[in-house]
Design brief:
Layout lengths: L4 E8 L3 H6 L5 H7 L7 E9 L2 E10 L5 E9 L5 H18 L4 E4 L17 E5 L16 E6 L19 H12 L8 H11 L7 H10 L4 E5 L13 H20 L3 E4 L4 H9 L3 E7 L1 H4 L4 E10 L2 E5 L17 E3 L1 H7 L9 E5 L4
């Protein structure tokens, strides 16, 4: 008689490959899963019958984000394969809810057996990969679809997603997603992303004024909320000539914004201000910093487009492939108010900015 199945959970606080070698996984599986690195939080669930390893799953999550992603599943040859999948799926889900996550994203789809142990009362959806799911070219293994299980009541996002195709087009990618959601763009394309960047760029990243002028030119009506009138993104510029050029370009965008009648509110927005907008059906392109999320201090734009289960829901156009992320890590990212409040500052002196968009008529 086979011993009863049991699930053991192991948090990885070290090199991923070294930790996986202690589990007893096949070498090729351990090598594939070693792509998941810090700062992603990594956890392995192992299914045992006595001393026999029958299966395992690895989960990851971004710092400050409210999701758990099942990034890999391995099964030994066994008559209990469906039961192993069910137990692993349930263990990952229970861990997610205990940890305060609001959605479990499974990659790859584990099949119907994984749903049998679910006790979530929220929506479930199979999401196909977006056309632009990674950098170009993309060195990561493809993820053609994913299964989302929400803890409470969420439905599939109505906002199309794209992963920015360059290191510097986060603002245009976020704007493209909003334009598609509002029916102004028929499809998300790289041509549009780069065309918007050429219109909005301040040499490198896009500043709030250039992005707002570009959004206005596409038929949206943005409002700029920013805590400073100073020139942005001067950090790291090596010469006075570079700084002067940045100031010249941003001053031009400020004049264009004024000529277009774009409203500018000069204050550091409170997180409840953003929440009221989102609850009313609006959207915001929010300036954040990557330091706490990807351990890389730089400004970055994300699209906040909804609220579920007490969290803001954002499409983040950046995914860190070198840390093992895929499009799942940028798609419908839940951010608790206190988490978004922490990352929505960037630069020195600190800048807080967003472009807000009223609900569609």
């Amino acid at each position: 008689m086979q011993p009863p199945l049991r699930i053991e959970r192991m948090k990885i606080d070290q090199d991923t490959r070294e930790a996986l070698d202690t589990v007893g996984l096949p070498a090729d599986v351990a090598e594939a899963w070693a792509r998941f690195t810090a700062p992603l939080a990594r956890t392995v669930f192992a299914a045992w019958a006595g001393d026999e390893l029958l299966g395992a799953a690895i989960t990851v999550s971004r710092p400050l984000a409210g999701y758990l992603r099942v990034g890999g599943l391995w099964l030994a040859e066994s008559d209990d394969a469906d039961e192993v999948v069910r137990l692993l799926g349930r263990a990952a889900e229970e861990f997610a809810w205990e940890s305060g996550f609001v959605v479990v994203k499974r990659e790859p789809d584990l099949g119907p057996a994984a749903d049998e142990g679910s006790d979530a009362d929220g929506g479930q959806a199979t999401i196909p990969a977006p056309e632009f799911a990674g950098p170009i070219p993309d060195p990561a293994p493809p993820v053609p679809l994913a299964r989302f299980t929400w803890r409470h009541g969420a439905s599939p996002s109505a906002v199309p997603y794209m992963r920015q195709t360059t290191d510097f087009t986060c603002g245009p990618a976020a704007l493209s997603m909003l334009l598609a959601a509002r029916g102004i763009l028929g499809a998300l394309t790289r041509e549009t992303e780069l065309a918007l960047w050429r219109q909005a760029t301040a040499i490198g990243p896009c500043d709030p004024y250039g992005l707002a002028v570009t959004a206005d030119g596409q038929g949206l009506r943005p409002q700029i909320v920013i805590n400073t009138a100073d020139t942005l993104f001067l950090e790291g510029l090596a010469t006075p000539q570079e700084r002067e050029l940045k100031e010249f370009i941003q001053d031009g965008f400020k004049r264009q914004a004024g000529d277009a009648g774009i409203d500018v509110r000069r204050h550091a927005f409170e997180i409840e201000e953003l929440a009221e907008l989102i609850r009313a059906g609006g959207a915001a392109i929010v300036l954040v910093d990557e330091l706490l999320v990807h351990d890389d201090q730089c400004p970055h734009w994300i699209l906040v487009h909804g609220m579920e289960d007490g969290c803001f829901i954002a499409h983040d156009p950046w995914t860190e492939v070198s840390q093992g992320e895929s499009w799942l890590d940028g798609y419908d990212v839940p951010l608790a108010p206190e988490a978004l409040d922490r990352i929505a500052w960037t630069g020195n002196p600190p800048v807080r900015a967003m472009l807000t968009f009223a609900p569609p008529a």
